[in-house]
């Protein structure tokens, strides 16, 4: 290391004044985030193979679909709603997982939760013939929960317990293994391969309000569990012993928070497919604006996740026009460099 290179601790201390200045303006950032979300939602219904104007958007919102432009807007409305909901769920799920594990690399994709949900759905389709979206949701949630327990169990083995490095390695290995199992299940089923492979990429195309209605109760329950866990996550951030000293039931607090994250990730995977990196990137960006207080971090992560997935969906439609890139590909392209930056900056330390 060069003599003039600052250590990780020194760099963190140098950032504290900036973080304090930014976190002191939380209401302003919240207002700007809501404005950005509204602007992205309008852009999402306006941009696509056919660009439509504001008069057509207004007519479609009033229920008139007697032209090609208004019909296009009507088809994009559920897609926009799903992108916002899925992004909020994934951003919130990632923030919870990072808080529960105190792992800066925690994310539904990196820890294998999304791929566990994906494997469960694929097995359900190929072996048990499930067809209804409600069945997909229950199956995905069970798969996500089983994957989370498995990864945490593997990462807890050996000296030091579930360290961030061990959890990240266990999650990466589990994701690769589950991905291989998905391929093994799909390959003999030529009748299902095309649809499952398309779903595995992760996207919000083809969304309907009926489909959103099926997953909405699970997302609402996940959001509720997440928000009531905010104070508990603040206590867990102090360390298990200190949290227990303040009267917090550590195991129960972790279980409730993790249940919320699993519901959010599983339900989103069921309807969108596995979308990666949103839960990793968003909480790190939001901590710069809100600090580490989960009472602010969790709602900001939901808002920023919705904005990110909407922006990724719009970008996917623009760069491949008149075709489009699925949002899962765009988030992978955006999230990969950020993941490398986090690894180099954090050196896989605890939060």
Automatic annotation (TrEMBL):
GO cellular component terms, semicolon-separated: plasma membrane
PANTHER family referenced in this protein's UniProt entry, alphabetically: FE(3+) DICITRATE TRANSPORT SYSTEM PERMEASE PROTEIN FECC-RELATED, FERRIC ENTEROBACTIN TRANSPORT SYSTEM PERMEASE PROTEIN
Protein species of origin: Paracoccus gahaiensis
Keyword Cell membrane belongs to the record: yes
The keyword Transmembrane helix is annotated on this UniProt entry: yes
Name under which the protein is recorded: Iron ABC transporter permease
Transmembrane regions: 28-47, 80-97, 109-130, 136-155, 167-187, 207-228, 255-276, 296-315, 327-344
Pfam families registered for this protein in UniProt: FecCD
Domain of life: Bacteria
Keyword annotations from UniProtKB, A to Z: Cell membrane, Membrane, Transmembrane, Transmembrane helix, Transport
Listed GO MF terms: transmembrane transporter activity
GO biological process: siderophore-iron import into cell
Subcellular localization, as worded in the UniProt entry: Cell membrane
Similarity comment text for this entry: Belongs to the binding-protein-dependent transport system permease family. FecCD subfamily.
Entry membrane topology: Multi-pass membrane protein
């Amino acid at each position: 290391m060069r003599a003039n290179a600052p250590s990780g601790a020194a760099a963190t201390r140098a950032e504290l004044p900036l973080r304090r200045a930014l976190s002191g303006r939380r209401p302003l950032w919240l207002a700007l985030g809501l404005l950005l979300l509204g602007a992205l939602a309008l852009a999402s219904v306006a941009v696509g193979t056919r660009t439509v104007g504001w008069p057509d958007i207004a007519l479609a919102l009033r229920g008139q679909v007697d032209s090609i432009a208004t019909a296009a807007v009507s088809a994009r409305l559920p897609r926009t709603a799903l992108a916002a909901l899925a992004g909020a769920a994934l951003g919130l799920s990632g923030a919870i997982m990072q808080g529960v594990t105190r792992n800066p690399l925690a994310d539904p994709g990196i820890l294998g939760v999304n791929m566990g949900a994906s494997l469960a759905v694929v097995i359900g389709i190929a072996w048990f013939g499930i067809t209804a979206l409600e069945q997909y949701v229950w199956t995905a949630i069970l798969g996500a929960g089983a994957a989370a327990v498995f990864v945490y169990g593997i990462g807890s083995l050996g000296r030091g317990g579930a360290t961030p490095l061990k959890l990240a390695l266990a999650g990466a290995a589990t994701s690769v293994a589950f991905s291989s199992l998905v391929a093994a299940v799909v390959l003999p089923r030529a009748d299902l391969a095309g649809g499952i492979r398309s779903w595995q990429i992760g996207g919000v195309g083809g969304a309907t309000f009926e489909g959103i209605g099926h997953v909405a109760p699970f997302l609402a329950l996940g959001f509720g569990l997440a928000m009531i866990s905010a104070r508990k996550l603040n206590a867990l951030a102090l360390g298990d012993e200190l949290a227990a000293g303040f009267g917090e039931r550590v195991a129960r607090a972790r279980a409730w928070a993790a249940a919320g994250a699993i519901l959010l990730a599983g339900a989103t995977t069921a309807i969108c497919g596995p979308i990666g990196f949103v839960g990793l990137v968003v909480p790190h960006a939001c901590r710069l604006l809100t600090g580490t207080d989960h009472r602010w971090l969790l709602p900001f992560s939901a808002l920023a996740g919705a904005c990110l997935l909407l922006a990724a969906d719009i970008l996917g439609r623009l760069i491949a026009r008149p075709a489009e890139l699925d949002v899962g590909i765009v988030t992978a392209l955006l999230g990969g460099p950020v993941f490398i930056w986090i690894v180099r900056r954090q050196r896989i330390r605890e939060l």
